[in-house]
Design brief:
Layout lengths: L4 H10 L21 H20 L16 E6 L6 E7 L9 H9 L12 H21 L1
């Protein structure tokens, strides 16, 4: 097994919301709580997917730099909490090319409040309840 840590990390970070232009975010491993055991399982699943892609020729294993594209991973992190929001590879000119249909929903699905967890149905329900009560209070004041 070759070490493809950046690719495994990317899969690990996105298993809870794999971007799909047809279906929106797909939750491959829908765990209610994140524990050491669920994190370990997510890491093993991500590593297994990368190994499958390597073994079938879709990714080039490390150790053959002459065949690999020049890239430099760059992390975009929150200025407040320093948590990585996005990790992306750049080309030799420092540019990254993304598919907007995949990239924008994956970034816009993050909660802007620190910890930056993906916004889920419970978050939407809580937001709707807060808005309902706020509007209800405004009506009572009038």
């Amino acid at each position: 097994m070759t070490s493809q840590r950046p690719a495994v990390q990317c899969l690990f970070d996105n298993l809870a919301a794999l971007p799909s232009t047809e279906y929106g975010p797909i939750n491959l491993l829908p765990f209610a709580l994140e524990t050491e055991q669920t994190r370990a399982m997510k890491w093993q699943v991500a590593a297994a997917i990368i190994n499958l892609l390597e073994d079938n020729g879709f990714l080039k294993p490390e150790g053959r730099p002459e065949e690999l594209l020049v890239n430099r991973p760059v992390e975009i992190a929150c200025a407040k909490c320093r948590k990585t929001l996005v990790q992306i590879d750049t080309d030799e000119h420092g540019r990254s090319y993304v598919t907007p249909e995949l990239f924008i929903p994956s970034v816009s699905g993050l909660n802007p409040e620190c910890e930056h967890k993906r916004i889920g149905l419970d978050d939407l329900r809580q937001h709707m309840e807060r808005e309902f009560y706020r509007q209800d209070e405004e009506l009572e004041e009038q």
